[in-house]
Amino acid sequence: MVREFPDIPFERYADDLICHCRSAEEARALWSALEARFAACRLVLHPQKTKLVYCKDANRRGDYPIQSFDFLGYEFRPRSAVWHGSQLGVSFLPAASPRALKAIRQTVRRWALHRRSDKALDDLARMFNPYISGWINYYGHFYKSVLLQTLRRIDAYLIRWGRYKYKRLRARTAGARDWFARVVRAHPALFVHWRLLYVGGRTSGAV
């Protein structure tokens, strides 16, 4: 790339590579050159992962079949964005990918929080806050709201935990939700994601 295509920016992580071309013609020419170079090294481009992606936004309004890609756990695609503090538009931006969010949901399910009635709530916070902090630190830089929708699953399990833990809540779904709301108001920093989800007693909608 440095020798043959110095004007095309690119980044690589392990065997994943993204090249930023200015036109479809430039991208196709680069693709052909990469195929030839890989073949010379007895390698091939991945037939499913190698693709041309149109980075559609407010300034690029064409219609191409592929308008998104995944890279390092993020999905890049056209998304609504607020420009200059108030103007609503469309930008080509990343957020946690559906595959990454699915992996988080599967991890939370494996925790089986609702079955850990032998633990206190602060015990659960100490056990699982490191995982939650890691997800927020990595996936929370762009479109945090996408990640927070998945982290709400944790709270659903905590409400179920309350019903297992306290006999008075076992037959009262609404009562368990009220109990959870009181806990959040009393200890808003107990779980890391609560600081982002619940602001002033209301759910945060920040992106």
Any descriptors?
single chain; 207 residues; alpha+beta; three-stranded antiparallel sheet; two-stranded antiparallel ribbon; 7 strands; 43% helix; elongated; disordered C terminus
Describe the protein in words.
With 207 residues, the chain is an alpha+beta fold. A hairpin with a 3-residue loop joins strand 4 and strand 5. The C terminus is likely disordered.
Furnish the topology, listing elements before pairings.
Layout: E1 10-13, E2 16-19, H1 24-40, E3 69-71, E4 74-83, E5 87-96, H2 98-111, H3 121-139, H4 144-165, H5 173-186, H6 194-197, E6 198-199, E7 202-203
Antiparallel strand pairs: 1-2, 3-4, 4-5, 6-7
Helix pairs in contact: 2-4, 4-5
* Number of helical stretches of at least 4 residues: 6
Order of helices and strands: EEHEEEHHHHHEE
Strand content: 15-25%
Low-confidence stretches: 203-207
Query: By helix and strand content, what is the structural category?
Result: alpha+beta
* Overall average pLDDT: 91
Distance between the termini: 35 Å
Describe the largest sheet: 3 strands, antiparallel
Q: What characteristic shape results from the CA principal axes? A: elongated
Please compute the radius of gyration using only Cα atoms: 23 Å
